[in-house]
Every structure is written in C-alpha cells, then in structure tokens.
Design brief:
The chain is mostly beta strands. About 10% of the residues lie in helices and about 30% in strands. The longest helix has 8 residues. Bound molecules: flavin mononucleotide. Flavin mononucleotide binds next to β3 and α2.
C-alpha cells in the first residue's frame, strides 16, 4: 500500500499509525525536568534520539496531552512546561531491569507531583544541571536546552514540540566499560517498537567501514 499521512494517519486496513513500527527500534529517553518551583518530573519519550555527536545534541518530542484533543497548545505535558521554565533536562538510559518502573512514570500525574516517588525510584543529584536523574540507571546524560521547536499542526488536534538539548555531562557505570568501550550487551538497553511492543538489545555484531 501507499498513502499520504498528511491526509490520513491510518487508512484502511491499518488499525494504528504505522510510523512507530517502521522507524524502530527507537531508544527511550527517560527525561527528568524540574518545575519553576523545583519539583522534579520524570517521563519516558520514544520520540527521542541523538542528532549530532559534535556538538553532542539529543532531542525528544512531547505531544499535547490526549485529554486536550481539539485544543491545540492547551494540553502541554509537564516535561515541556518545565523546560520552558527551567531549560535543562537529564536522560536516564532504560535497561531491562528498569522497564516496569519506566512504564509507571508514563502515568499522568498532576503537575508538581513527582514520578520518582510514584515509581519508587531514587533521584540522584546531577552535577551540572538542576533536574536529577534515575540513580539506578546505568548511564545518564545531563543536558541544557539548545532549542524548543514548535512543530506544525497537521491533524488539527496536536501541538507537538521538539526539544533539543546539548549534552554537557555523561554518567556511565564503570562496570559497563570493557576494553575502553561501553558493553551494549551488558547495558541491555530497552527501546520502543510500534504499538505496545518493546525491544532489548540482544544481537550485537561488528561491521567495519570500507577503507
Ligand atoms: C515507552 C514510552 C514512550 C513514550 N513516548 C512518548 C513520546 O515520544 N512523546 C509523547 O508525547 N509521549 C510519550 N509517551 C507518553 C508520556 O510518557 C506520557 O504522556 C507522560 O505522562 C508525559 O509526562 P509529563 O506530562 O510528566 O511530561 C511515552 C510513553 C511510554 C511508556
């Protein structure tokens, strides 16, 4: 089949927008931010990736809250509201052992209520930014916001944004470092496929570039 998603995001016989299944796996950015009042927030975003190594840039894209469908820009997720107030965030890497708690932090809580506490997670103090990161995460990034881009409204019901951040600090569990490299098998990073499907890094092979 072929279709134009600007006209219809899921034409027959598709039951869901297939983009998530086609651009997959996507790493999960487990994003922590703080409100102007200093309350921490934690939420997973699979519209997340790294976009540049030098300068090191990562980005994530919050949609409007579904409850606010039909009203563009009013259902702003806490992560977006927070980076507008305090332009810093952390990204905790999700390993298989943390996947249930990661999922728990996607539960919508009232603004100002901490998902760290709700998911029984200890917050570790960052070195260079104010939002904390997940202490049990085996790696985490400290970021300052580089840009917040308003994305165009196509379906008429979503005000999405792309938040880009420059990575200014990187935490790595020393045990993950083998022969000077991060051991991807040991990290067991979880990523998102389409629908409610997930993937854990399990099949790693090396392919050198042609010279
Ligand atoms: C694995 C996973 C990935 C998600 N990815 C996104 C995403 O890319 N964009 C988004 O807007 N919501 C995403 N969500 C839903 C948000 O985590 C959820 O709306 C959360 O309540 C937002 O929290 P906040 O209001 O504290 O920012 C995802 C949820 C899960 C479980």
């Amino acid at each position: 089949m072929f279709y134009d998603p600007r006209k219809n995001l899921r034409p027959e016989p598709l039951s869901h927008n297939p983009l998530n299944a086609l651009v997959a796996p996507r790493p999960i950015g487990w994003i922590s931010t703080i409100s102007a009042a200093g309350e921490p927030n934690l939420a997973p975003f699979s519209y997340f990736n790294a976009f540049s190594a030098d300068p090191p840039l990562v980005g994530f894209a919050p949609n409007a809250k579904p409850a606010e469908a039909g009203i563009v820009e009013s259902g702003v997720k806490d992560s977006l509201a927070n980076v507008r107030a305090v332009p810093e965030f952390t990204v905790s890497v999700v390993s298989a052992e943390l996947v249930r708690q990661m999922n728990e932090t996607s539960r919508p809580l009232p603004h100002g209520e901490s998902e760290f506490e709700a998911a029984d997670l200890v917050a570790a103090k960052s070195r260079l930014v104010r939002p904390p990161y997940v202490k049990r995460a085996r790696a985490a990034l400290e970021c300052v916001v580089f840009d917040i881009i308003d994305l165009p409204v196509r379906s008429g019901r979503r005000g999405s944004h792309l938040i880009l951040g420059e990575v200014i600090g990187i935490h790595i569990d020393d045990e993950l470092i083998v022969n000077g490299k991060v051991d991807s098998r040991a990290l067991q990073q979880v990523s998102r496929l389409g629908y409610f499907d997930y993937h854990v890094v399990d099949d790693v092979f090396e392919l050198l570039r042609p010279r």
